[in-house]
Every structure is written in structure tokens, then in C-alpha cells.
Design goal:
single chain; alpha/beta; Rossmann fold; 7-stranded mixed beta sheet; 7 strands
Length: 245
């Protein structure tokens, strides 16, 4: 995976995991207003951005790569923050390697499988070429609250995402359930969802919170599926609070 690293070498480690269909650039608005001088690790997940040459295959394989990344760059653990698909990876990473996660923020993770996952994936595979159309990509960008300054990056990357990556990542996303080890007491956890997201997202956030002892739940008023891009100041403030703690 391509990795962008920034911040002071002695700063608290912060691993940011982007959502499906975007890449590490989605964290730029949040990082631009983050006050804590953290050592920031921002990978482009397989099949996305500068890691597009390798298709996304599975959550398990990607978590394995993230474990290797943290063992190299933050062996003492990091604050792990994930959005959407990246949030599911954050849950898995926390459950599988709690020694590498000092704190976790889960933003808009679907944790309730869709009842009709099979037909949904089949329809997605048939419609995959749409992602290469700039007009379609712009409509999708609006749903994610991608700002105008980052729209060219989103449109360009949408055109490069392979059918295999699209199908595999969405299939993993809509079939995801939290592992049993998520319920093991451990690092602090903040579970977030937007009040204007689909009901399944809000219900998923409540389920993740209920399953994780000592976790905190926030349903954020006025926010849809795109908190880090829709309200980067708020996202940064919550991260500053945890980094300072």
C-alpha cells in the first residue's frame, strides 16, 4: 500500500483509513485544521488512489497489510480512525490486534448485513462501468460531500477503480458484521454516525456501541454519510480531544 506519512516523528501516532471509492486525500480537510502535532499515517487502501495497481480483495487481507504497516511505523500502537469501509477495517484491526490500537474512532461503519446482498452485488457488477463516467462520479461526490477543491481527485480516481475492486470492496462492506473480539474490553472507542445517514448506518453505530464495553456513541446532528468531508472542523476537534487524552 502507498503510505503518506507526515508530522513530527515523536508525535502521537494517528492512522487514518479512508472509505471505499476515495483514497487518503479525503482526510486533507480534517488534517488542515487538526491542532495536535500528531505523526499521521495515511495509506491508500488496495485498489484505491496510489495503490490502484493492486485490486482490493478482502477485508482480512487488507487488515493483514495494516498490521504490517503499524508494526513497522507504530509498534507501540496508534489512534486508529476509519470512515465507512475504513471504519469496518478499524473495527477488525482493533479486534484482531488490540496491542496495535491505543484508541479507535469508527465513523459511519455499516455493521448490519443487507438482506439482499447477492442481488445487490450482481447489480453493482453490471453497473460498474458507470463509475468511469465523470457525470456519475460528480453525483457520487455530492453524496459524500466532496468539496470542490477535491472534486478533480475524486473524478480521476473513480475512473481508475477496477470492477474487481469495486465488487470486492462493496461485497465486503454490505456483508460486514463485527467480530466477536470487538466485545472484548480494551482500548477506548468512539462510534460516530450522522443523524441524516440511512437508518441502517445509525442502527449499526448503536449496535457497535452496545457490543463494545466502555465505548462512546455520538449521533451527530445535521451530518450525512461524510462527516470528515462535511464537517472537518468537528472531526478534527474530536481527534484533538482524543490525542490530548
Amino acid at each position: 500500500m502507498h503510505l503518506h506519512e507526515s508530522g513530527p516523528p515523536d508525535g502521537p501516532p494517528l492512522l487514518l483509513l479512508h472509505g471505499g471509492g476515495v483514497s487518503g486525500w479525503m482526510w486533507r480537510p480534517t488534517l488542515s485544521v487538526l491542532r495536535t502535532p500528531a505523526r499521521v499515517l495515511v495509506p491508500d487502501l488496495p485498489g484505491h488512489g496510489r495503490s490502484a495497481s493492486q485490486d482490493y480483495r478482502s477485508h482480512d487481507e487488507t487488515v493483514g497489510a495494516l498490521v504490517e504497516l503499524l508494526e513497522r511505523h507504530a509498534p507501540g500502537g496508534a489512534l486508529v480512525v476509519g470512515f465507512s469501509l475504513g471504519a469496518q477495517l478499524a473495527v477488525l484491526l482493533t479486534a484482531e490486534r488490540p496491542d496495535l490500537v491505543t484508541d479507535v474512532v469508527v465513523v459511519s461503519a455499516q455493521a448490519k448485513p443487507l438482506a439482499l446482498a447477492g442481488p445487490t452485488v450482481a447489480m453493482l457488477a453490471a453497473a460498474a462501468p458507470l463509475a468511469r463516467w465523470p457525470r456519475f462520479a460528480r453525483l457520487q461526490a455530492k453524496e459524500l460531500f466532496v468539496p470542490a477543491t477535491l472534486l478533480p481527485a475524486y473524478v480521476a480516481e473513480s475512473a481508475r477503480i477496477s470492477r474487481a475492486t469495486l465488487v470486492a470492496s462493496v461485497c465486503e462492506n454490505i456483508r460486514f458484521t463485527p467480530p466477536a473480539a470487538w466485545a472484548t474490553p480494551g482500548a477506548p472507542a468512539l462510534v460516530l454516525a450522522g443523524a441524516r445517514e440511512r437508518r441502517v448506518m445509525r442502527d449499526s453505530a448503536r449496535a457497535l456501541h452496545a457490543a463494545r464495553p466502555g465505548s462512546e456513541l455520538r449521533i451527530v446532528d445535521g451530518i450525512g454519510h461524510g462527516l470528515p468531508l462535511q464537517a472537518p472542523e468537528l472531526m478534527a476537534a474530536m481527534l484533538d480531544e482524543r490525542l490530548a487524552g
